[in-house]
Predict the structure of Peptidase M20 domain-containing protein 2.
Amino acid sequence: MNLKSRELQACTIIDGIQDELKSISLFLHNNPELGQQEVRAVQTISRYMEQHGFDTTVGLTKCPELRTAMRSDIGLDRLHKMAFLGEYDALPELGHGCGHNLIAIMSMGAAIAFSQTARDTWGTTFFGCPAEETIGGKVFMANEGLFKGYDGALIIHPGGENEVGGTSLATHPLEVTFYGRSCHIASLTDSGINALDCAVDLYQSIKMMKQDIFPKGAIVGAIFTQAGTAPNVVTDKATLRMTVRGATVSDLEDIILPAIKAAANCIATSYGATVDMHHYEPLFKDMRQDERLVSLFDEVMTELGESPRKLPPDEADGSTDVGNVSYEVPTAQPTLNIGNQLEAHTPEFACAAGSPYGLDQAIKGAKIMAVVALRYAESLEV
């Protein structure tokens, strides 16, 4: 069977299971579960993948963060392997305001269709990736080596327009706590050590560094989470919590964060205070979109009536744990329109993620991904 025939067969397979996939998506939409609590989602998806011949494992490795991660495999011992990345966690109060119920069925449908139409040298894995909205499950999956040995990893994200290309920002949130010495603000014998002064100085220092030394793309957002208990007492403990982002991991880890940490230590020393620093979330790496996969997504989306906007390689407006996958295996994540100009993490987006149009687009997304996977696989066979 030639490539074109296999592509048509893959789309026919997805058409044949579209009602079941939509039903699963609506179940997830109507029963939202927060990150690391996605028990019903995992049970439902696992059961369905097993019905289509996949061997399923839930709770990957001994890493506690991956207790609701899962994988469904066919042909792991084959020469080549393709990974399809699914998500299923929801947002507090909003539910599926990021459309993960659609991401799940797009990757499920594509994995099932690819497994039945790819050459027999190809194995298939559907990865169920938990807690994208919180800890970033794919960060831990990548750290555990779960994506090593795959020839490609595919995922489509629903959005307010069709897009391919671009990147994401690296991010490694940081918390800095200064410890001083408390005393009465009007004491004649002890001026204390004001931890809040240290925190304010660091905040101001970061503002200056953003203008003077940070590389292009650097973003630092900061809030004071501890700043004293009474105005007539010198503050002995003050905490800054920061989201720290850079265009690349190198910019972030080699320039931006070292500069912030050096400034914090210098400020603490100058006041006679002490300082503690720790990262309260893991490192999300920047996205390295594979050019061949991006080109194929552009091609196939256009063929199926969803012509995408092509983003410059350095355009980024957020961070994603898919970036960590892209450091391990050729990866692409285009965006598929489910409602013009919709913004994720809004009630309107959550509504669209459960709408008939949103579900129809997810079925189209599954076809796009399956066809891209088949063409990519064929290019590696040549």
